[in-house]
Amino acid sequence: MQIYNAPLRDMRFVLNELHQDDGFGNLPAYADITPDLTEAVLEEAARLCQNVLLPLNRSGDEEGCHFEAGKVTTPKGFVEAYRQFVEGGWNALVTPPEWGGQGLPEAVGKLVEEMICATNVSFSLYPGLTNGAIAALTVYANDALKQAYLPKMVSGQWTGSMCLTEAHCGTDLGMLRTKAEPVGDGSFKLSGAKIFISAGEHDLTENIIHLVLARLPDAPKGVKGISLFLVPKFLPDAAGNPATANGVTCAAIEHKMGIKASATCQMLFDGAVGWLVGEPNRGLEAMFTMMNAERVGVGIQGLGIGEAAYQSAVWYAKDRVQGRALSGVKRPDLAADPIIMHPDVRRMLMTMRAYNEGCRALSGWVARALDAEKHGGDAETRERAADLVALMTPVVKALFTDLGLESASLAVQTYGGHGFIRESGVEQYMRDARIAMIYEGTNGIQALDLIGRKMPAFMGRYLRSFFHPVSNFIEANAGESPIAPMVAGLKRAFETLQGATSVIAQRALKDPEEAGAAASDFLRLIGLVALAYCFAKSAKIAAQRLAEGTAEAAFYTAKIQTATFFYDRLLPQTVACFFAIKSGKGSTMAMDEAAF
Amino acid sequence: MQIYNAPLRDMRFVLNELHQDDGFGNLPAYADITPDLTEAVLEEAARLCQNVLLPLNRSGDEEGCHFEAGKVTTPKGFVEAYRQFVEGGWNALVTPPEWGGQGLPEAVGKLVEEMICATNVSFSLYPGLTNGAIAALTVYANDALKQAYLPKMVSGQWTGSMCLTEAHCGTDLGMLRTKAEPVGDGSFKLSGAKIFISAGEHDLTENIIHLVLARLPDAPKGVKGISLFLVPKFLPDAAGNPATANGVTCAAIEHKMGIKASATCQMLFDGAVGWLVGEPNRGLEAMFTMMNAERVGVGIQGLGIGEAAYQSAVWYAKDRVQGRALSGVKRPDLAADPIIMHPDVRRMLMTMRAYNEGCRALSGWVARALDAEKHGGDAETRERAADLVALMTPVVKALFTDLGLESASLAVQTYGGHGFIRESGVEQYMRDARIAMIYEGTNGIQALDLIGRKMPAFMGRYLRSFFHPVSNFIEANAGESPIAPMVAGLKRAFETLQGATSVIAQRALKDPEEAGAAASDFLRLIGLVALAYCFAKSAKIAAQRLAEGTAEAAFYTAKIQTATFFYDRLLPQTVACFFAIKSGKGSTMAMDEAAF
Lengths: 596, 596
Prior knowledge:
Number of helices of chain A: 17
Strand content of chain A: 5-15%
Largest interface: A-B, 100 and 101 residues
Structural class of chain A: alpha+beta
Number of strands of chain A: 11
Helix content of chain A: 55-70%
Oligomer: homodimer
Largest sheet of chain A: 7 strands, mixed
C-alpha cells in the first residue's frame, strides 16, 4: 500500500536545528520568513500532497497518458490536481517576487519538493520543468521576453519544457541538429526533432513554453555552436493571451518503464517561431542554469520516493505477521509476530531510513547554500555557498537517485511476493525511481562532472567548501563526548576520502581515463562521507537535547540510533569504493573491444 | 534491443576445463555423455532459445497472459514454442531414464537452463516448476502415483505446479489452512485457497499436476502438521488420459511488475481429489526436495537475465556514438566515438561480465556436485558433494538473483534514456529479474537458511566442503606464479570470510538475533569469495593455456582480464560486509517499534 505522511518533525529538524552553524547564517532576504510561517507552509504542503497527489499516484500509473492526433490527455484527476496546485500558489513558492513569486527560501522549497516527489513523481514533472525554465529566463532573457512569459510561468498558468535531447544525442549535445533561421524581425524559425521531452505536451495549461537548444546558420560545430530559444506552443496576442498555434507539435509519447503519468514527448519543430535567449552560441551556459537547478530537483525525486518506499514498507512490516521473533514470541495474541521483529527486515527498514534521513540532512545543507549563494551577506559567503552548490549538485543528483532505487527495491523485498504485485504499489516506486538515475545527465555523467570539472576547479576550491567544515567538525569534537565513536568513524571515512582524492588527483593529471574509471566510486565515496558528516552533526545535537532534557526524547533517540546504524552498516561501503578507486583504470580498460 | 548469443565458449570452459580437479571426478553414470554429445546438446539448445524463445520475450511481456472464466491464455506463440520445446526433448533433459528422461548430468542441464532463462524467463516457469514436482514425486510418491503421473510429466505432456503459499502465509508455512479430508478409499478431498501459483493454469498442456501442501484433520499445529498431496487438474481415466475435471479452479491471475507472460494464479481447491505424497505430516520435507531443486534454478534465472542484459548492453555500447574517448579520438570516421570507449561505461560492462562469468563458474561447480551427490563413486564423495550443494543452494539463489538485478539495472543505465523506454527491451530485464530475489524463499530467508541451518550443521561440515578447497588452492598456489596477486587477494578475502564466520559463530550461540542481523551480509561475503575462488582457478588455467600457446588466446586473455577486474573492483565489497557483520545486531535492533 502506498503510505505517506510527510516527515514534518525531521524536516523541522533539518530546517531549524541542524545547519544553523554552517556559516550561511540567517539571511536578511528571508527576515520575514518566520518559523511559524514555514511551519504553516510545510503543513499545508503535506495536506495537498497527502490528500490530492498521493491518491492519483497509483491510478495515474495504471492509466498512463493518452495520445491522440497530437494531443496528450493526462490521467484522470491530474487537471483538477494541477488547478489546486496552482491556486494554492505552490508553483510560485520559491520564485522571485518581482515576477509574482512568493520568494520563499530553497531551504523550505526543497522540503516541499520532497513531499511532491514522494506522493506523485509523475505529477511533479509538469510544474517541475517550469522552474528550470524560469531560472534560465530570469538570468538570460531580454526584458520583453521576461515580461511576456515569466509572470504566467511563475504563477503556473503556463508550464515550461526543456527541449535538449535528440534521438542521436543526449549526453553529447554537440551533435544536435535542430536549426534556427533568423527571420529578420528579431525572431527565428526553428526546425528539428526532439525526444524525451517531459511535459512537452499536456492538457493542464492553455500554453506551454519550450526552451529549445538549436543551431544558428553560421554556428560553429560542436557545443560552441548551440543557442537557446524560447518557443511557445501558442504565440501570444497583443494582450498576452495564447492566440496563434506555433509550428511545434507532439508526434508521439513514449511507453516507459515508469513515471507513466508523465508525458514524455517527441516534439517536432517545423518552422516554429522562437526568440533567442541569451547570446548566440552561448546556449549551453543558459542550459546549465536550467540543468543545475533541475539536477538537485532530480536528486530530491530519489529522496522522495525513498521516503515513500520506507513508509510503505514500515506499514507492511508492522501489519504482516509471519514467523516468530528469534528472541522469543513477541505477540502471543497473534498467530505470528509482525515481521518488523525480524533482524533482516529491520536491516532493510533501517537502511532505507538511514539513507532518507541522511539525504534529507544533506539536501537541507545544499538548499541553504542555494539561498546563501543568492542572498548571502558578503561576497565570501556567497562564493563559499556557490562552491558547495557546485560541488554537491552532482552528488545530490546521483547519490540520492541511486539510493532512491535501492530503497524502493528494499521496500519491494520487505513485501515479499506481495511487493511484486502491482496492487501493492511498491513496485511502482522501483519503476518510477529508475529514471531519476538517467535524466538530467546520467549518474555516470554526474560522476564525471564531479571528478573532471568540480574537483579540479580553482585548485580544489570547491572541494574545500566541503572538506573544511568536515575537518573543523572532527577537530572540534575530537575529545570526550557521547558521539566520540561517531567522530572517530567520520575521521576514518574522511581520511579515506582524502586518500582517494589524492590518488585521483595524481593520476588524472597524466591520464584523464584514470579519472573516468574512478568517477562513480568517487561520487559514492564523497556522498557517503557527506551523509556521515550530517549524521554526526545530527547525533551531536540530539545528544545535547537529550542531555538537557526534552519532551521529544523519542525523536532524538531515534536520530542517534539511525545515525549509529549508518555508521555501523552503510558507511563501510567507503572502504570498498576506495579499493576500487586505488586499483586504477587498468582492468577496467584492458579488454579489447572485440572481446566484449 | 534484446540480444542473446549463448556464451558457448565460456560454457565449455566451465563444463570441461574449470572444475576437473574438484574431486567429483568423471562419473561412471555419465560415461556415455561425451564432450561431442554435450556440445551438440548445447548448440541445439542455443538454437532453440535464440530462435524460438527470444523472439517471444518482448511480445510476451507486452501482451501478458489473459484470464477469462477460469481459463488462462498464454501470449501468442507460447503454445507453439512449448510444443517445440517438448518435442525436442528439452523437458526431459536431466530427468531419470526410468521415467523416460534423458538422464543428462545437471552440469549440462544448468547451462541449458541458463539459456532458457536468458531468452525467456516467463516461458521457463511453465516447464520449470514441473521439474521440482518430478523431483518430489520421484522420491516420495508411491508406485501407483509414479506410474500414472511421472512419464507424462517427464515428457512435458503434462506440467506440474507447486501450491504452497496462501494469502496470509508465504515464509511461515506453519500457518497454512488448506485442508485435506480422507475419503476412505485412499484419496483425499482438498479445500482451500492458494496464491502466487506459477503455471497453476495455462493452455500449454492438456493436464496440470498440482503438488499441494495441506493439513489432515488430526494434524498437529505448525509446520509439523503439513502434508503434501498430488491434485491433478483432470483426473485420469483407466487409460491414463485426462478425463474428469477435478475441483480445482483458477480464480484470477496477478498483475505483476514483470514475468508478465508467466501466469501467476490464485487457485481454489473445493473438494478437489488428491493423493498423499510421502508420509502424513511430513510434507515439508518433500516440499524442500522440490524447493531446493528450484532454488538453484531461480539463481540461474538471475544469471540468465544478467547475461542477456550484458549482451544487450554491449551491443548498444558498441553501436551508440556519443562524445569522444578521453584518451583521444578513436573513430574519426564517425561524429563521435562509441560509448564503449568511455571508462564509466566500461566499468558497467565489466561489472556485468564479471558477475556473469563468476556466477556461471560457481553454478558449474554446484551442478557437478548435484551430479556427484547422486552418482558419486563412493559415500565420502557423495557426502562431500551433498554438503557443497546444501551450503551453496542459498548462496546461488540469493547472490545470483541480487546480481541479476544489478546487471539488469546497469544495462538500463548503459542505454541511458533509451533504456527506460519499453521498446529497448532492457527495462524488461529489470522487471523480470526482480521476482527472482523473492520467490522460492526471499533472499533474506536464504541468508537465514545459510547462517542458521547450513553454517552450524554438523559442526561446520557443510562450510568445510567449501573452505577446504579454497585453502588448499591458496596453499598450492602460494608461490611465484602469473596469478600470484590474485592468490594473495583470495587469501585476504578468505581470511575476511573466516573472521566473519568466527565472529558470527561466537555471537549466535548466545543470541540468534545476532545471526539474523548478520545473515544477508554474510551471504554476500561468502558468495563473493566463492566467485573469487572460481576466478582464481579460471585465471590459473587461462595463464597455463596462454603459456603453452593456444589458438584461443583472445578467450583466455579476456578471462584473466575479467578475473582481474573482479578482484580489483568487486571483491572489495567483502570488506564492507565484514564491517557490517562485525558491528553486530545493536544498531539494527535498537529502535523502538513505535519510532518507525
